[in-house]
């Protein structure tokens, strides 16, 4: 890879911004994740926000839900672009893993994010 | 139960529809009326992603919706009908022969030429006039993004 990936977190309301703040607080890594909210957006406006956040460089789009306006806009942008991958069900664990493993292809980063995010979902014995 | 909600929402199928309205209404099917989506399998697959497997999605063109409206209204299950733009909704209501008595405005968002009427309703003057025309014909038009919010009658924001 010529340059490390960056991530765009796409969510309802302020969830994306909060996740990005939390990643920065835990990891100390800055300027890797960009939050995008769907607040006040129709699909075209949201797509424009996401596209601006991608900035024409290889990226992974981390989307909150596996359906709905955030996902449909993200997939429209990624369609036919191998340098953009989409992951749904974004959580803090997958973002923390991502910021330290960005020298891979978008597809590989997405696969890794699914694993890292999934591993974090547990019901530990109390 | 037929169509419990006839909604204008430019995001079409999304969280507020599937979860916010779909859960309390116990909706079993969603009718998405949109000529462009009706013509694209890829777009339909995208919208299906946001819908649980126990909820049927029907993709209809405006012409198909006009023909099948009675069928959906007579369905034993509860359904939600969605249109994403004002012209489609007004045409559907006009073609319904009075069978659509109530329209929910769930989201019409900012775009060049539109001005804010509510936090989630932006309209051009022409679009506002079309909605007022619906109301003047006896259709109950109100804005309400989620069921727990107050339904705002059209007279309060237009």
Features:
heterodimer, A: about 130 residues, alpha/beta, Rossmann fold, 4-stranded parallel beta sheet, about 45% helix, globular, B: about 160 residues, Fructose Permease, 7-stranded mixed beta sheet, two-stranded antiparallel ribbon, about 25% strand
Describe the protein in words.
The complex is a heterodimer of chains A (126) and B (158). Chain A is an alpha/beta fold and 126 residues long. Chain A has one domain: Phosphotransferase system, mannose-type IIA component (Rossmann fold). Chain A has helices spanning 15-27, 43-54, 69-78, 92-99, 106-119; strands at 6-11, 33-37, 59-63, 84-88. A 4-stranded parallel beta sheet of chain A has the order 2-1-3-4, sandwiched between helices. The radius of gyration of chain A is 14 Å and the shape is globular. The N and C termini of chain A lie far apart (43 Å). With 158 residues, chain B is an alpha/beta fold. Helix content of chain B is 35%, strand content 27%. Chain B has 6 helices and 9 strands; from the N terminus they run βαβααβαβαβββαββ. Chain B has helices at 15-25, 35-38, 41-48, 62-73, 86-94, 125-136; strands at 2-9, 29-33, 56-60, 78-83, 102-107, 115-118, 121-123, 140-143, 152-153. A 7-stranded mixed beta sheet of chain B has the order 3-2-4-1-5-8-9, sandwiched between helices. Chain B has a two-stranded antiparallel ribbon with strand order 6-7. In chain B, a hairpin with an 8-residue loop joins β8 and β9 (152-153). In chain B, α5 runs parallel beside α6. Chain B is globular. The termini of chain B are far apart. The interface between A and B is medium-sized, with 17 and 20 residues.
